[in-house]
Amino acid sequence: MNPKDKDILSIALPSIVSNITVPLLGLVDVTIVGHMGEAAYLGAIAVGSMIFNVIYWIFGFLRMGTSGMTSQAYGRSASDEAARLLLRSLSIGLGIGLLFIVLQQAVRWAAMTAMQPTDDILGYAYTYFNICIWGAPAMLGLYSLTGWFIGMQNTRIPMLVSIFQNVWNIFASLIFVYGFGMKVEGVACGTLSAQYGGFLFALYLLWRGGYARMFRGISLMETLADSKSMSRFFTVNIDIFLRTLFLVAVNLFFTAAGARQGAVILSVNTLLFQLFTLYSYVMDGFAYAGEAIGGKYYGARDKSAFHDTVSRLFRWSFVLTLCYTLLYLVAGESFLRLLTNDMSVVEATQHYFPWALAIPLAGLGAFYWDGIYIGITYTRGMLAATFWAAMVFFAVYLTLFPLYANHALWLALLLYLVTRGVVQTLLFRRRRDQF
After folding, report:
1. DSSP for 44-95, written as a single string
2. pLDDT digit string, tens, across residues 278-314
3. Distance between CA 150 and CA 15 in Å, rounded?
4. What is the number of other CB atoms lying within 10 angstroms of the CB of residue 112?
5. What angle do CA 189, 256, 104 make, to 5 degrees?
6. Best CA proximity match to 244, nearest among 404, 60, 32, 49
């Protein structure tokens, strides 16, 4: 195997493992409350998890922006710059997390107003929120650390942290619920303790992983007072932040549009969307490889190695996309039957299954280019592509929904993915000589 392919896999495979374990934090909570005997508990966890998923997703720029800029510093062998990037990102992440704690009443009111849980769920959702909001600094700080490790070409540490965090969450939640007789508050305390456990474990691995020497002699105050570097940091991350808002808008609208069509269609869309989620776990791993390795060669100004990496990542992405398409064609229905035993829902999925089957090919460009663009910090291009893709999504849905109902919703989603990939391809070709 070519050494560059080995480098790609060394970054991608641990990232894939990390991606697969991330949903377990929420799954463990759901499993525990699902055996408490009261549906309102499960509803509260669902509402609370959705709120925090959206909040942390919006602030995902802390991971992505840090990853791209750090990988470029790594490529230039600028260890001082890489260290300052982490201090800068950590300070901002922890600061935003503390701000959420200070403003928690306003955030809770806005979140609950948006979610509108029923009265039997509302009280428990408040309890879950009031505890888990204290984990915001740990989660956002961990985003910064994860992005930095990826930029330093080390995805093994984020994988270890993710596994550690999930094991901690399982045992802590079981102890709080069954050992101390707590209910929703026990699950929330388990999640909160796992968040801080993961954050502290990442700091420990940073210290013991040979990185501590990079921070010697570097002043935190001088790092934060460097207006030029702070300006670039915020410019890159504002683009990613705005892009994420468009992503969130499309995904939330997709769910809401399905819900307005009734319980069966909502269930169908939720099940079929799991095929998209599974595909994203693997493709995100290779996108991380694009961030780390592409950014490294871009920072080193090694055009030949950079474009070779771009080509190799495309080949890996294309092969995986074909494999996923064939897998869904052969075993997609069987997988859906594992997720539910409601035959009416399974049968209803058959009307829309071709749309889900097209997801890998439609999403190939979007996932592939995202990693490259983050690595070279061409975040304005990512923002432009996502903006136009979102416009296409809403235009197609609003135009065709009266005629084709849920088929129009799925067509809008696929064209949204295709548009992201096409726009980013055109932008890259236009600026190819600059990369």
Report:
1. HHHHHHHHHHHHHHHTTHHHHHHHHHHHHHHHTT-HHHHHHHHHHHHHHHHH
2. 888 889 999 999 999 999 999 999 999 999 999 999 9
3. 9
4. 17
5. 35
6. 60
